[in-house]
Design a protein that fits this description.
single chain, 337 residues, alpha+beta, Heat Shock Protein 90, 2 domains, five-stranded mixed sheet, two-stranded antiparallel ribbon, elongated
Length: 337
């Protein structure tokens, strides 16, 4: 919260910093020569012309070049812009100095001036970027914590936990061989949230194991209600991914399917990955007229929160598509890991 407040204050002050800087640049020559006889010898139009070219190259770099992730790739274009701006200024300045023949001397002097302004604006951009990155880190930290809490809620929610324990109890009374396995899955789910869920990255193998056990528990709890088709095709299970990104979609699929009338509603979950690109899809039926207990419906972190986490964790490296068609809810997520 503190970083966000500082960043917002900086954004409010920033326009005034720019105005203050350019006012100094514009009027400095007049202040410098104010006590000399005749004052500053050049016209105000001359200074406005000079100011225009200083601002042009400064803001070109500030808004276009400095934000680039791979600056080395775009460096030739930045150099070309500097040279072109300087050459154009030299010809524009000839209007005020028609008899001046020292083109190259003025060229290198003005080029050095533009480079100096570039350094100033790069410093301003860097300060702004530091505040912005700190704000994003704080937001990411809060989002991760919210995801951990919400995922924990998903697994200790009374609807899920009590029914799962009842299922385990019923299996125990029948001496069902699956009873120890169900207890282990429930225990592993909590262990994952408190251990691996606290890390910045986990292997796909760990994340998929957690999802598999969660799906297994839900299938036992909703044995007659759902028909789950769950498939994975991961070439490199050791590749890293942010934890607890996928479970909100799976949780929602079971949540909205569990309130439907009838039996054997199809839930389809697929995951594929080649070590570089990861793809997740989840499809489940839903009925807009179905009523869900408010405590149950608010247990998940919500798609909006997941979108925010994805934007912070994988900027420009993910594609999330959510669609509702023919009483079916479709989630398609691709991530460049």
């Amino acid at each position: 919260m503190e970083s966000r407040n500082i960043y917002q204050k900086f954004l409010r002050v920033e326009p005034w910093l720019h105005i203050f800087l350019w006012l100094i640049v514009l009027f400095y020559p007049y202040l410098k020569y104010s006590e000399r006889e005749g004052g500053y010898m050049m016209s105000f139009a001359h200074e406005l012309n000079s100011l225009f070219f200083k601002m042009t190259i400064s803001y070109f770099l500030f808004f276009w070049f400095f934000p680039k992730m791979n600056k080395r790739k775009y460096l030739p274009w930045a150099v070309l812009a500097l040279v072109a701006n300087t050459v154009t200024y030299e010809f524009a300045d000839r209007y005020f100095h028609p008899k001046d023949t020292h083109f190259w001397q003025h060229f290198f002097t003005d080029l050095l001036t533009y480079l100096s302004f570039s350094v100033v604006f790069f410093a301003l951009y860097s300060v702004k970027n530091i505040y912005q990155q700190q704000m994003q880190l704080d937001t990411l930290s809060r989002g991760k914590k919210q995801a951990e809490i919400s995922a924990l809620k998903a697994q200790i929610n009374p609807h899920f936990l009590f029914n799962t324990l009842n299922t385990i109890y019923a299996n125990a009374l029948k001496n069902d061989d699956k009873t120890p396995e169900l207890i282990l899955k429930l225990s592993n789910g909590f262990r994952y949230l408190f251990n691996e869920g606290q890390q910045d990255r986990v292997s796909l193998k760990q994340e998929l194991q957690h999802l598999t056990e969660y799906i297994g528990l839900q299938q036992e709890r909703l044995a007659d209600k759902v028909n789950v088709q769950f498939s994975t095709a991961i070439d490199n299970p050791e590749v890293q991914i942010a934890p607890l990104l996928l479970i909100p979609f799976v949780e929602n699929a079971f949540k909205y399917t569990s309130v439907l009338k009838g039996k054997k509603h199809l839930i389809t979950i697929r995951m594929t990955g080649d070590g570089h690109d990861f793809f997740f899809s989840c499809t489940n039926p839903f009925d807009t007229k179905s009523n869900i207990d408010p405590n149950w419906s608010e247990s998940g972190i919500g798609i909006a929160n997941v979108k925010e986490r994805l934007q912070l964790l994988y900027p420009e490296k993910h594609d999330l598509r959510v669609a509702e068609e023919d009483h079916s809810f479709h989630i398609n997520l691709s991530i460049v890991l």
